[in-house]
Amino acid sequence: MDIQESIANQTHVSTTLSTHLLSKHSPNTNVVFSPLSIHVILSLIASGTKDKTLEELLSFLKTKSVEDLNGLASQLVSLVFADGSASGGPRLSFVNGVWVDKSLGLKDGFKGVVENVYKAVSNHVDFQTKAVEVATEVNSWAEKQTNGLIKEILPNGSLNNSTRLVFANAVYFKGAWSEKFDPSMTKDSDFHLLDGSKVQVPFMTTKKKQFVREDDGFKVLGLPYLQGGDKRQFTMYVFLPDAKDGLKSLIEKIGSQSDFFDRHVPRQKVEIGQFLLPKFKISFGFEASDMLKELGVKLPFDGGEGLTEMVDSSVGQSLYVSSIHHKSFVEVNEEGTEAAAASAAVVMLRSLRTNDKFDFVADHPFLFVIREDITGVVLFMGQVVDPRVA
User: Fold this and answer.
1) Cβ(192)–Cβ(364) under 8 Å?
2) Distance CA 158, CA 50 (A)
3) DSSP 121-134
4) Which helix (H) or strand (E) element contains residue 292?
5) Do 44 and 166 touch, CB atoms closer than 8 A?
């Protein structure tokens, strides 16, 4: 398996998920989510299926086999998500958990993948009489793994006595800018909303050179985070349409090119004229199954073939995915960025010009991406349409 090709395919899937979510489901809302988190949950589900359901998942995830998916997952955990805080880099956490009803045992092959590839701890629980308590346990797990940022990944009523399995994934990232902004220079200014009105919000500013490039109809800003003792380089990219109402067309442009991010990231620092970037904080959650069905992933949710490779029981033929819950949080300020995401899938029994001075004035809706530049892996993606709304 070629890791770069696999990551390119994974990024393509991330772009597909992101553009669909931003354009179809939440076009007028602040959004942050981790397409990677959802990718991992789908990969884990794929490892427990076969036949047409597996083919459908592999096709959507743009890969040839479960082995390739699992190889990518294990590489990402070791390559991208090792915590770098001890050596001065970003603090990172990427963890998986599985909760299975005590009446069932995981198949040996699936159990091996869960524990060895996804490094997930399997928890045997009593869904049939204690579903509410298990939901509380999963929520407490997500809160702990995301440093308190994601408090309720499973909403009330998402588990019941028909639930047999829950898969959950949590991502946490906290990075300091390699060049922090001076808080004393932060000042209020106008931000133009999609409805044509404007509001006053605090903007960070600087006179220092920045990674900025101009493209056809938009500009891109790259804000690197402090590196640790390894080669990884994490960066937040801000994609700013030229037009005040240009966010929708920019998202469509990104969705039409699978290698959009690689082709449009700024590679060198330039002199800055006017520079304004709003501080923002976003908390966003959604249930992903409807979106995935619209994108062609239907069989895991309809229970036709069942999820036959997960449990050591004929019950597997009647298992289906009832819901995939995802929550994310991001905060951007003068110091840097703190972000977290969690996903949980619930499986039930059936019954994301170098000489000139460049202006970069983000005073209208824009897109942002947090990625690791050596591999190209996108950790978080989102849009800011109103910096006042958390």
Assistant:
1) yes
2) 26
3) EEEEE-HHHHHHHH
4) helix 289-294
5) no
Closest CA to 32 of 240, 326, 276: 326
CA dihedral 18, 26, 341, 259 (to 10 degrees): 10
pLDDT tens readout for residues 6-57: 888 999 999 999 999 998 888 889 999 999 999 999 999 999 999 999 999 9
Domains (range + CATH), the chain: 3-175+281-349 (3.30.497.10), 178-278+354-384 (2.30.39.10)
Side chain identity at 351, as an amino acid letter?
Answer: S
Segment 112-131, tens digit of pLDDT: 999 998 888 899 999 999 99
- Type of residue found at 261: F
CB-based contact 246:385 (threshold 8 Å) = no
Q: Is the dihedral of CA 254, 259, 265, 268 positive or negative?
A: negative
Task: Using the structure block, give the residue that is written with the tokens 């920019």.
Answer: 250
Instruction: Give one DSSP letter per residue of 264-284, joined into a string.
Output: HS--SEE-EEEEEEE-EEEEE
